[in-house]
Amino acid sequence: MRGPSWSRPRPPPLLLLLLLLSPWPVWAQVSATASPSGSPGAPDCPEVCTCVPGGLASCSALSLPAVPAGLSLRLRALLLDHNRVRALPPGAFAGAGALQRLDLRENGLHSVHVRAFWGLGALQLLDLSANQLEALAPGTFAPLRALRNLSLAGNRLARLEPAALGALPLLRSLSLQDNELAALAPGLLGRLPALDALHLRGNPWGCGCALRPLCAWLRRHPLPASEAETVLCVWPGRLTLSPLTAFSDAAFSHCAQPLALRDLAVVYALGPASFLVSLASCLALGSGLTACHARRRRRRLRTAALRPPRLPDPNPDPDPHGCASPADPGSPAAAAQA
């Protein structure tokens, strides 16, 4: 005897038709964007950060030891200040090619790899202030062709080479205050044609010929009166302070005039060429002298070979000085004398 059979009730055909025709892709999109963009883990936002509309990611004061992963092309500003990012490795900001503002203040940063900022061609503002940077490798900022504001204030920089900054054609503001700079390397400011704001206070500038390029730039771009009074240099061996704006070009008349770019190009072009010409001349002269000596030697040997051999003299002079030599005891002359 069979028991009662239970069958699952089928939905009405009209209901099936409505489900098939319903816009389910719209539901999927709504569920995907249901999480608010301001919460961690939202799309295009690093997992530990908080993002807001407009492409701003705030990762400030989270004790982060490194740049967070998950950077997106939609990011326009990344705030990483007050963390513990001690070093920037190569490609530290990979994936954030549209980034325009980067804040790395107060991280204890002491090392920046030469390829750390690769891919950030749209970056306009970079803040590296209040860190522990002592040197920057050549080419560090070379990829940042759109950079307009750069802050290196509050570090330990004792020298800043032109190759470290590179050619930044749009840079308008450079902050170097509160470092350990005694002078700026020649040619550094010449590669920044758009620069019109330079912050210099709080450095141990040394009054000397090395300040000539900086003082020339300051005469063309005067500092605000409030800052000009605080940018001072120290005379070597003295305790006297002088404002950098007080030096005219005549104050550097005793200094050697640096070579212009055209002169440097001539020196670099003619130097190796003249060396090669001198080397070739010496080799040619040495080869000529060697060939001449060899020819003379062969001629001397040929002359000696053609000359007849000399026969011995049958009557040699016994004494070229006229003195008779003692006769041989066995000769007839000696017997006659006896």
Automatic annotation (TrEMBL):
Cytoplasm as UniProt keyword: no
Gene Ontology, cellular component aspect: voltage-gated potassium channel complex
Keyword annotations: Cell membrane, Disulfide bond, Ion channel, Ion transport, Leucine-rich repeat, Membrane, Repeat, Signal, Transmembrane, Transmembrane helix, Transport
InterPro entries the UniProt entry points to: Leu-rich_rpt, Leu-rich_rpt_typical-subtyp, LRR_dom_sf
Annotated TM spans: 265-292
Annotated GO MF terms: potassium channel activator activity; transmembrane transporter binding; voltage-gated potassium channel activity
Top-level lineage group: Eukaryota
Biological process, per Gene Ontology: axonogenesis; positive regulation of synapse assembly
Main location as per UniProt: membrane
Location of region: Disordered: 303-338
Composition bias, Low complexity: 324-338
Compartment list: Cell membrane; Membrane
Entry membrane topology: Single-pass membrane protein; Single-pass type I membrane protein
Protein name: LRRC26 isoform 1
Record organism: Pongo abelii
Organism lineage string: Eukaryota, Metazoa, Chordata, Craniata, Vertebrata
